[in-house]
Design a protein that fits this description.
With 270 residues, this protein is mainly alpha-helical. It has 7 helices and 2 strands. Helix content is 61%, strand content 1%. It has a two-stranded antiparallel sheet with strand order 1-2.
Length: 270
């Protein structure tokens, strides 16, 4: 396997491309991940990748704005009440969680896209005889910034999925004064949203590059996340990660609070 091909990823070398790669002093690999501080085969490809990132930011911002409005409008209605059945209480909590996680994921997608776009335009070209061999903008992005590429893609798509699933689940929750005809229409709309989400998933899998399907992307992303932000101590620059002392305990606290929220007893509600 060529040295710049990541384990579990797709080969980045084209037919006829050089098979030996000269690493430059300022190319900083860390445990098989090539991080920022490198040179591209072509700065034109880097600029095209930057334009792609800018194009993705607009729909992600649209989804984030729509989700935030939906969360605000349904906050009171989706708050569990003392007389709600256990399944209804759990569903209401899950709807709010899906909406907020959708907003957070799309915001992360926008943020990482902006930062990665700045990094893309920060480096120059390598010599022709040292070319890696990619010829498309997303190949450049995937090769040099795989973690960032996956964060942007997964953040946008999963944010969209969470919004659709949250809306479908909200439609399934019975409301006071809802007629039988209205109930049937709510079930129909929820079924349509779930069907749409499944089709979007199938369409996305059919057009994926570098990965076999969306599940493969998730597995790869989790592996890179753990390797970069949990196991990698110190980081590729030889520095410690003081923020890990905050975000790792904070993640644990958030999980505990989520468990308490979903298991909150009804008799504690007014």
């Amino acid at each position: 396997m060529p040295p710049d091909v990541l384990p579990g990823g797709s080969p980045h070398l084209r037919a006829g491309a050089p098979q030996s790669i000269t690493r430059l002093p300022y190319a900083r690999p860390s445990d098989g991940i090539q991080l920022a501080g490198t040179l591209y085969d072509s700065t034109d490809l880097a600029f095209s990748a930057w334009e792609w990132l800018n194009g993705l930011g607009a729909p992600a911002a649209l989804v984030a704005g729509a989700v935030l409005v939906t969360l605000h409008d349904t906050r009171a209605e989706m708050s569990p009440r003392k007389g709600d059945k256990k399944g209804v209480r759990w569903a209401k909590q899950l709807v709010r969680f899906l909406y907020m996680s959708s907003f957070a994921l799309t915001v992360i997608s926008i943020f990482v896209g902006n930062v990665t776009g700045t990094v893309l335009l920060s480096f120059g070209e390598r010599a022709a005889h040292e070319a890696i061999g990619y010829t498309a903008p997303l190949e450049l992005l995937h090769h040099h910034f795989e973690f960032e590429y996956l964060t942007i893609q997964i953040g946008f798509l999963q944010g969209l999925f969470n919004w659709l699933f949250g809306t479908a689940l909200e439609l399934l929750i019975p409301t006071e004064g809802e007629t039988e005809s209205g109930r049937r229409m709510s079930l129909c709309l929820a079924s349509c949203l779930v069907t749409l989400t499944i089709w979007v998933q199938a369409f996305y899998n059919h057009h994926l590059s570098f990965y076999s399907d969306y599940a493969h992307m998730i597995r790869r992303y989790l592996a890179l996340f753990v390797q970069r932000y949990v196991r990698c101590w110190p980081d590729h620059r030889g520095h410690n990660r003081p923020l890990a002392l905050l975000y790792i305990p904070s993640t644990i606290v958030s999980i505990v609070l989520a468990w308490r929220a979903f298991n909150s007893p009804a008799d504690e509600d007014c």
